[in-house]
């Protein structure tokens, strides 16, 4: 009898524990349910909610109107899908962001905003973002940027003829007298070969322009309707000089009034609206500070992991601190074969010629100082600024700026094309409340 009773109690206890376990699991599923499968990754409801809340907080602080919550969630979900695909590529390519590099990047972000790390963390908290969340978001953005540079940068080619034509077009305009802060809306044509599809996109762009003229906020429209990659930032393109304006809008922006949308502009990819949010004066400098600099590069590769590369560059740095000859180590160890064969010499470097991470380090280094390690998109650097000078480089500077402007224009176009390609090629399945976003099945299409 007692054995039977004990057996019954054990069975009841086991069933109760199972019930609690199932209940707890169900609660976790509610809290962290999958909203989309993206190739080998999943996107969770908590990720989506966190990103939406961050964007809502930022746009509200800017005074930008918000679209309906459901529409915003769908747009943010597409953003997360794009990020997931790029991060999976980064993982497949063996790309890593070390904690040291991430810490340096966060410190640079705080410093560029005039904040200490503690103040930066407090500011994030006011926006509803924890420091850890910010770290991971910045890590992901750095990885995505490197994937984009690797996959998209290789598509961009600039000829000397293009530079000459660009400089000739700029010659009659004189130096840049103003900078423009732009916002931008892009309406993509789903099927460029279909006339009805083109006209539908054109009509939508014209309708949105009229809504803006009638008083709807341009940035709100960008968040809700734009197909551009910066839609969830209200279409903000930042400050641009005239030479940095995208070729499509360059003829119209200088004559636009602040806050007034452009006419609908068209190119092969779709229809565009731009507005000037603000203007400020500026003069083109012809006398600039140049740096005579040398460096040693250690590049991660299939044979050299990120950790191994970082350890190697730190070992080189210690050798230099102990008195080793910079030129000799550059010839022996640098993964930059051109400069390495010349003792690491890069010659006289003007602003804008180097990638941002390297240029910032170059600006911060004292003359003669062994500075680093510094991580750029090319790998790990140690650098030394041997000399600084003021130099009149008007002609060289204009050519460099022309190449940068042409590259940026082409890169932005190729980036949008590439993002569409990887999205079209990916396996994406929406779940739960978002299941109706899945394309109709073949059976439904047939019927």
Automatic annotation (TrEMBL):
It comes from the Bacteria. Its main location: periplasm. Residues 1-26 form the signal peptide. The keyword Hydrolase does not apply. Its EC number is 5.2.1.8. GO terms for molecular function: peptide binding; peptidyl-prolyl cis-trans isomerase activity; unfolded protein binding. The keyword Acyltransferase does not apply. Keywords: Chaperone, Isomerase, Periplasm, Repeat, Rotamase, Signal. Residues 177-278, 288-387 form the PpiC domain. It catalyses: [protein]-peptidylproline (omega=180) = [protein]-peptidylproline (omega=0). Chaperone involved in the correct folding and assembly of outer membrane proteins. Recognizes specific patterns of aromatic residues and the orientation of their side chains, which are found more frequently in integral outer membrane proteins. May act in both early periplasmic and late outer membrane-associated steps of protein maturation. The PPIase activity resides only in the second parvulin domain. The N-terminal region and the C-terminal tail are necessary and sufficient for the chaperone activity of SurA. The PPIase activity is dispensable for SurA to function as a chaperone. The N-terminal region and the C-terminal tail are also required for porin recognition. This is Chaperone SurA. It comes from Marinobacter nauticus. The lineage of its organism: Bacteria, Pseudomonadati, Pseudomonadota, Gammaproteobacteria, Pseudomonadales.
